[in-house]
């Protein structure tokens, strides 16, 4: 699927998020020291730094599964340092399976991911979970 090293790096990163539990060690090994991640643009805060990203990924791994069966990369396009990925993500949170479409933008420098931003419909996910969209990110802030 990947047509170059930059895309392959991102595909490896995404594949590390598959399964009942994300492979946080592999994911963190593919990011830069100055990594910046925004789980949901514009609603979630920007997580900066490898250590902060590890802590946040571990928190996510406790709150939900990784991407489970049915998840897929639908489209991937790139230039030298940017990879855009369209995905269908399926996760289970509190025993409830949710599916949603995601567009993620990754920036890469010197063989490491430096930025990761995701765009998806939080209200769609909240409805599947039976919760108010205004509290969607509260568990991450606990």
From TrEMBL:
Annotated ranges, domain Limonene-1,2-epoxide hydrolase: 9-127
Query: Which top-rank group of organisms is this from?
Result: Bacteria
Sorted alphabetically, which Pfam families does this protein's record hold? LEH (PF07858)
Q: Which SUPFAM superfamilies has this protein been placed in?
A: NTF2-like (SSF54427)
This protein is called Limonene-1,2-epoxide hydrolase domain-containing protein
